[in-house]
Every structure is written in structure tokens, then in C-alpha cells.
Amino acid sequence: MICGVRVRAFRTAVVTACGLAAAPVAAQGTPGEHVHAYLARIAALDDAGPRLDAVIVTADADAAAAAADAAVRLPLVGRTVLVKDNIETREWPTTAGSLALANNRTGRDAPMIARLRAAGGVVLGKTNLSEWANIRDDDSTSGWSAIGGLSRNPHALDRNPCGSSSGSGAAVAAGLAWAAIGTETNGSITCPASVNGVVGFKPTVGMVSRTHVVPISATQDTAGPMARSVADAAMLLNAIAGSDPADTATAEADARRSDFAGGLAAASLQGVRIGVLRKQAGSDPKLTAVFETALADLRRAGAVLVDVDYAWPEGFWERSLPVLLFELRRDMARYLATLPAADMPRDLAAVVAFNRANAGREMRWFGQDLFEQALEATDEAAYVKARDTNLAATREGGIDKLLAGNRVSFLVAPTTGPAWPTDLIYGDNYPGSVGAGSLAAIAGYPHLTVPMGAVEGLPVGLSFMGAKWSDAEVLKAGAAYERARTAVLKEPTFRPWRPGGQ
């Protein structure tokens, strides 16, 4: 923890007892005992030891343990969940990583968190994130926020955990909780899940409420589960999915949701046609070799693979950012207006002014050029045209067309490349030529990433994308691949990267 806004108590006895390479919490024991074990592991690996800085605040141990034990008859049976700190929980401030919201203590649970608790989940704490969900500046370093400092990838401490759900991905990989909740606008669940070697699921936009979540884009924003298995991710989605009258995008959620975990164990790929986006696999022979092994596993599981040719439409990327910037300015003002504290900023311009006044702490490593561009994004007609054009390009002219035209049920590609070295001075060196997650992100369609192996010891994931509201089917495909996977997955080293991952 760098800034000292919310610091957990340091517990040396726990650090000594747990040790650096402590295994994830065992299945034995009561839910309350699991709470204490996870908190001990956070103390050993996040507060001390390698200092992952993935978790910025944790629950009171005794109160959380009591809540876990009281939930034994509920679906999640007191399982522990860490929550990204742009999602409101009643216990703590919700900061989006920014000092401007350091005192944003609303006393509210976001509807998804209320659902989580009602299902027997225990909120163990909140995770660090790329500040403002990585929409502040073009030259940002993923995983850094003024509140939480710099999160580290447990597989290679000097490599990036990706963002913006950086802390959620790193925490799950390090075994700091049963699962975590992240949010995504464009890759912010799937990228950190992939590079941290865990499962991440971005559901159909509208499956999970966005009320009381610090926004970027009403068109693309969603929360979703991050876990160590597809089954665990599906269980968490069961708990948080559902309609919310305050979020009109979720009007169909209750009708579309199902038991996402049901049928996963028996799910089969026999005879299932899957489209392979080879152009989106990149040109790194080490990554494509891992991808080919995953494709061979799919074939052995009975899938019929079909090469699918896809190229991003002309002007696609030029239209994408202006849509986000217009919605950021508009939607941020709507959210900030709901905050009960009198000293909160009320619009994006106030946040920009706060950052300028506190540049030494907020803008030491990168600026706020995207925020400043968003203040000028006021042409609604241009915004609507760009939004509708890109939605059509990713929906009926994109995923829908690729699925129907090739008679396939899903699309697969590597999610992204391996984690890059973290560099606070020069910012991210993101492998942007790999993956097709923006198709699902902009369309608002489901996207699952499942670990498929490693490149030089650095995890990489396999993406499954499907049609709108096909969330259950996508999860089943991922679970079937998970069982068929032959790659031996790497466990975190909690050390800086070494060639070969040794």
C-alpha cells in the first residue's frame, strides 16, 4: 500500500506462519476458518513477502468469519470474494483508485453485491485496479492507482498484471480468495485473467447490474467473475446476475439467466463447430505453438474446427475511442451526482481539476489526456453515429455474421500475449495485435478466457466468444476445454521473471 489512505494492520506472526509459497486455502475446515486462512495469506503475500499490492482493504476477520459460518445453508456457503474497488460495498469507500474519491463512503451495496451476500458470499475485501479503470491517460501503467499503488503479477513480479481489474486477477492467481469480481469495458476482465493464469468471464452486457459502479460506458460496461476454474466463475455469476430496475440494460437478465454452473461437468464438445480466428493469434511462434496445442485439445474433445477470416472494419478504432469518451463524460456526471458525501466531485471537470491540484501524487507517472479529451466530447450526433456503426460492425456485421456464415457456435483465439515488463516511466507495452476481445466487448457479447498454457513461464489464455445471451453455452464450452486441456499450468513463482519461468 503506497498512499496510506486505507492500510490493513500488519501481522508478523501470520507472515511467519504462512511462508512465501503457502498453498491456496485447502477445502477442509469451516467457512469461518477459510476466512481466517485467506486473510492470513493476504498478510503473507500481499502486505508482506512479495508485496503484490492486489488487495487494498480487508474485512474484519471475526465479523467475516461469523458471516461465512452463518451462510452454510446458502448457495455459496460462505465462500470469500474480493471486489474491485470501483464497485460500491457498504463497508468501505469506493475510490476507483483515485484520491478524488478517497472518502467516497456511500454506505451502499451495489445490487450485484447485495445479491452476492444474499447467496451466501462473503465480501473479503476490495482489490486494486488501474486508476479510473484505465481511462485516464493513453500512457498509463496498468495496475497502478494513487490509492493502491502498483499491483504485481504473482507469476513474475516485474511483469504487468494487466488492467483494469489488475488486483482481482492477481489476487485470484495468488489464492487470496475463492474468487473475485472485476469489471470490463474493453478487455479489463479478460486481459488480467489471461496474464495472471486464471479464468475470467465477461458476461453479456445486461446480465449483471451496473448500478453503484463507477462508470466508463453505458454501452460496454459490465462486471464479471474471475476464478481459478470455469465452475467457480459460473457459481459466482449465478450469485450476481439478474435484473435491476435502476439499470435498464438488465431488463432481460432474469429471463436470460440460468443455473450457469449446471451441466458444466457433463458438457461436451463432440461435434461442436468452433471458429478459429487465426489472424488474431499474432505472429509470435511461442504463443502460436501454445494456441495450436489448445486447438489440438479441442479436436481430441470432438470439436470441429473451422478457420474463420476476420479483419477489423475500416475506421473501427477511430470510432471506438470517441464513443467511450462521450459516454465517460456523461455517465461519470450521472454517477458522481448520486454520491452522498458533500466533498465529492460532481462531474469529470471537477476530477480533472482535482488531479491538477494534486499532480504530485496523482500524475507523477502519467497524465490525464483522455479525461481532457472527454471534456471536449460533446457532439451527440457524431457520438450516436459512431456508436451505432461500431455496434453494427461487431454484432450483425461481426460476431453474428461470423457465427452464422461459418456455421459455428463459438469463436476462439488467444486472449492476449504474455505479460509485459511493468514500466512506470514509459507505460504499457501491450501486445495489441493478439486477440479479438474487442469484438465481444463492443458488441456486448459474452467472452470467456481459460488458461491454455504459458510462454516462457508466463500464462496465456484461450478466448471463447459467443452470441448475445449465450453465456451458459460459452461457459460450458470453456469447461469442456478445461477438462480436455493437456498443458500443465504454471503456479505463481512470486519472484521476478526468469527465462523459461524457472
Give an overview in words.
Helix content is 35%, strand content 13%. With 502 residues, the chain is α/β, with parallel strands linked by helices. It has a single domain, classed as Amidase signature (AS) enzymes. It has an eleven-stranded mixed beta sheet, with helices on both faces. Helix 10 crosses helix 13.
Question: Any descriptors?
Answer:
single chain, 502 residues, alpha/beta, Amidase signature (AS) enzymes, two-stranded antiparallel sheet, 16 helices, 35% helix, globular, disordered N terminus
What is this structure, in a nutshell?
This protein is of the alpha/beta class. It has helices at 12-18, 31-47, 61-70, 111-118, 166-173, 190-195, 230-240, 253-256, 285-300, 316-336, 348-357, 359-362, 369-375, 380-405, 437-443, 471-484; strands at 55-58, 80-84, 122-127, 144-145, 149-150, 179-184, 199-202, 222-227, 273-276, 304-307, 410-414, 447-455, 458-465.
- What oligomeric state do the depicted chains represent? single chain
Individual helix count = 16
Question: What number of structural domains do the residues give?
Answer: 1
Which percent bin holds the helix content?
25-40%
| CATH fold-level assignment | Amidase signature (AS) enzymes
Shape: globular
Strand content: 5-15%
What's the rounded overall pLDDT mean? 94
Secondary structure tally: strands: 13
Main sheet overview: 11 strands, mixed
Describe the secondary-structure layout.
Elements: H1 12-18, H2 31-47, E1 55-58, H3 61-70, E2 80-84, H4 111-118, E3 122-127, E4 144-145, E5 149-150, H5 166-173, E6 179-184, H6 190-195, E7 199-202, E8 222-227, H7 230-240, H8 253-256, E9 273-276, H9 285-300, E10 304-307, H10 316-336, H11 348-357, H12 359-362, H13 369-375, H14 380-405, E11 410-414, H15 437-443, E12 447-455, E13 458-465, H16 471-484
Parallel strand pairs: 2-3, 2-6, 9-10, 9-11
Antiparallel strand pairs: 1-3, 4-5, 6-8, 7-8, 7-12, 11-13, 12-13
